[in-house]
Amino acid sequence: MMICPVLVFCLATSAVAQDLPTLVTDVRPLLSIGVVDGAEPYLLNGVAGALRQSDGRVVVANCGSSELRFYDAAGLHVRTVGGRGGGPGEFQYLRRIYPAGGDSIGAYDGLPRHRASHFTPEGSHVRTVPLAARVEVMGRLADGALLGRAVEVQPREPGRFRRATTLYRLDAKGMVLDSLSGLPGREGVNDAQGRPRALRMERMAVLAVLSDRIAFGGQDEAVFIEYSADLQPVRRVATVTRPEEVTDAARNAWEAATDVMIPLGGTVPGYGPESAPQMPAYRHMVAGIDGRVWLQDPDRPGTYPLVWTAYQGGRPAMRVELPARFFPTQFGPDWVLGIHYDPEGIERVQLFRMQPGSHSGRSWTPRDAQPPDVPRCGAWTSR
User: CB-hemisphere CA count at 13 Å for 150?
Assistant: First the structure.
């Protein structure tokens, strides 16, 4: 299968992808939270994540106000907890939320202190766990252990580099139980004076925390690796999309696309002239509540991918085309929850039903299909 955008470049997928069931989302969301003007609980600002509870309630991490906002299954605001501060249950930089067992909620507060806070399904604060410097909590495993990640300090020497990633299994007090080091991180480059620049078409590390395992991918191969809850490798999973060499045609297409790389209200890193040796095999990774791992197709110069592939039991299972300007935060068996940005930049948390259907084959620029990356407290970044 070939998906060819206007900007010359084509994305190749394996023959396996052509035989997978295809899903699409309904045109209208089943649920939409967020307004242009209205009551404060519905004015979203810097959504850092959203989760759906078993009874249909939705919890939104609103980083702009450092709050967790709870809504019922119809999208009506129920309560708000948290707020800006350093006390128990408060946040200074609310980076993400994650399932913490049943319908309980975990929240990672990134700066200036790294902390993980847990809340009951109704929003009552249970405890706050202090973390070592630079360790960010990515999720919670079924046995109660937290999965943390740390990336090595960026080198200062001139030249290209790839920072290493270490995974940590932490107990309920934040103490390290196990670790796995030497995993690939994000690529970058320093100029002759040692100043950091973003590397064009760089590769990075992505991961998803499920109840019984962790999925991790470095984007440099057409595989990701699943690890057990105690960080032992279980299997390598082949992906339906592959890395591609950065050719002169790819560099030219990247240059031609620079005027559409900047998203509305977003930022673009300071790129140097250097490019990665090859483009990533895939883009982002999101966990499904049913044990599936979802991988986004890779972006290519000037093109933002809308198609995601579900992997189950170590094999690709299906491919879904998501709406433009929508980034998923959680997949269910037949639904997807995520953050939508409309053309005016208004944030909404929306729930879509997924059902069988044919993919459109549309291609989008990062600007047209925004958000073009993972939400980061109100700022969207583009590559």
Answer: 16
Whether residue 186 lies inside any domain: the answer is yes
d(CA 126, CA 18) in angstroms, rounded, equals: 47
In a domain, 208, yes or no: yes
C-alpha 225/C-alpha 214 separation (Å) is 8
β partners of residue 4: none
What is the model's pLDDT at position 382? Answer: 39
Residue 246 lies in a domain: yes
* CB-based contact 194:157 (threshold 8 Å): yes
Helices (H), ranges, 276-339? none
Residue 147 within any structural domain of the chain: yes
Q: In sequence order, which ranges of the chain are alpha helices (DSSP H)?
A: 15-18, 248-256
154: Cβ–Cβ under 8 A, 6 or more apart, which residues? Answer: 161, 163, 188, 196
Count of structural domains within the chain: 1
Q: Are strands 347-356 and 31-33 parallel, antiparallel or unpaired?
A: antiparallel
Domain extent at residue 323: 2-356
Q: Which pLDDT band, with edges at 50, 70 and 90, does 12 fall under?
A: low
Against a cut of 0.85, is the pTM above it?
Answer: yes
Which helix (DSSP H) or strand (DSSP E) does residue 69 occupy? strand 67-71
The CATH number assigned to the domain holding 98 equals: 2.120.10.30
